[in-house]
Write a structure and sequence with these properties.
The complex is a heterodimer of chains A (about 350) and B (about 260). Chain A has helices at about 20-25, 50-55, 290-295, 300-320, 325-345, and strands at about 5-10, 15-20, 30-35, 60-65, 75-80, 85-90, 90-95, 100-110, 115, 120-125, 130-140, 145-155, 160-165, 170-180, 185-195, 200-210, 215-225, 230-235, 245-255, 260-270, 275-285. Chain A is an alpha/beta fold and about 350 residues long. Chain B has about 260 residues and is α/β, with parallel strands linked by helices. Classes of the chains: A alpha/beta (about 350), B alpha/beta (about 260).
Amino acid sequence: MADRSAVVVTVDGRLVQAVVGEAAAGQGVTVGPATDEIHLLRPPDPDALTALHDAFVPEVVVLRVPAGVVVEGPVVVVQRHSGAGQAGFPHLVVDAGAASEVTVVDHWVSDDGPGYVNPVVEVHAGDGAHVDYVGVQELGPEVWQTGHVLVSPGRDATLRSWLVALGGDYARLYVAAEMAGQGGAAEIFGLYFGEDDQVHDFRSLQDHRASRSKSNLSLKGAVTDQAHGVYTGLIKVREGAKATDSFLANRNLVLGDGAHVDSVPNLEIVNENDIRSCGHASATGPVDEDHIFYLESRGVPTDVAERLIIFGFFDEIVSSVPLPGLRDPLRRAVRRKLDKAVARA
Amino acid sequence: MSELVISGLRAGVSGQEILQGIDLTVRSGEVHAVMGPNGSGKSTLSHVVMGRPGYEVSAGSVSLDGTELLGLPAWKRAHAGLFLAMQYPTEVPGVSLFETLEEAALAAGRDPAEVVARARVEAGRIGFDERFLTRPLNVDLSGGERKRNEALQLGVLEPKIAILDEIDSGLDVDALRAVSRRVEAATTETGLGVLAITHYTRLLLELRPDVVHVLSRGRIVRTGGPELADELEKTGYAPYADGAAEPAKAGADPFADPFADPLA
């Protein structure tokens, strides 16, 4: 990604590098530690782990995009966890002003060895803004994570996020969309692929507070070996959230006898009278036999057919990532896991 | 010259026998129509010959040019030269037509680089919209477009023998004509042998059969020339309906409890 507008590197939550390109700097884009208490958003269900984060967060790193600014090229953030017995509490805030446009790529990586990371990312799109956030989690296989991604589109703003979970030992992510801006829209695409004895635990909340707000969540995952996928999701439509349009879908492929998935989507609707559309869907199972047979009947060998179908299952999400340059590395990462899974099958 | 030989084929689902001894031979360039009422076993025949999972074969053999197909996975049957055009072509999300045909070519030892150009030629021949070529397989395609897509793949894969499972269902007159003409052309161009399974005679207006078989209750009860299709057009399947093809059981008790467990 040669055309990036800024590069931000944090290690164990501390800002170690922030380079804002000339063009973006000229537009007033800034990256730096917060100088005062900044919390645009709060995790919806405070618990011991969120308290732990608040107690130990070393500094809050803030990316600011002034109102009306259209940032050319993505802001690339790398959040490194130094592992080896460390606990980390990184905190990133993306504060995009009214009618601004920006794309942020946030890569979570770690050194080898065991560790615990408790990250929080807040993404706020001001009124009429358009923000894309792509978070890719590739932590080491001995790292535990309990993280939060909090997104909130303002009035008539559009906030899209892609959350890709590939690494970690036990990796939990709670994504919460606070739909407090009238006519605001949030799109959330999630992808996870668990192998060995990885646990990927996704939790989601689409909290509709304002009228005409629209949210859509699509989470797709696969598990092989002894891996375990967990999903619990909730759509909440509050009093006053008129003409809400909200959906969540979770689809999981179970690719090994020892692997399993628990999926529990929920709806909680307080304002029942004036909803445009609200619903959820969930499906978990092996690769569809009919799909395999169709490809086989054309002469595609069984194992190749399975690979094509699994790859295609994820590619619906990967191909929607707004940065074409990011799609191929993501495809390679998915393919790597797939190759290992097929080789062991 | 290729030859698909089905002999003494018995097969069913969950212990219930549906095909009760099928004998049928299809050679290159021939068009055989298998006709029969609903529930006669037409689709079972096509699935069992292609190797769809879920069926139990209890007896018989299916061979193509001497290769026994029963026991082989479907893709090996395809490599042997068999093709099945499905009644309900499956939507396969996220998988494209090109990659499917390329993988099929690669596995069969053919050049996958030819696939795209050949698919475009076939699309032109049967009037398949080029925009659909890059879509995931059959996703958001109408019934007629799906059947054109099946005919397109038949054209690219160049099988020796094709089974058409009710390819005339769910498509409009134009698509039916395009698909049947393409198959008819393949019988002379590449010597394709065809086993066309159908309920209606309208398919056979464009795709002229050499032999017509009537399937009833899992057996071929009549075989004849094209005139048999004309006869079916007039009489329907009533003469072959349940019970008519077999004499009534002698000695059945007219006062027997109709709800009694027949296995008791």
